[in-house]
Amino acid sequence: MSATENKKQSLVKKIRVRLDHKTIITIKDLAKLDFWKEKYPKAVILD
Question: From first to last of its 47 residues, what are the pLDDT tens digits of the chain?
Answer without folding.
Answer: 676 776 666 677 899 999 999 999 999 988 999 999 999 999 999 97
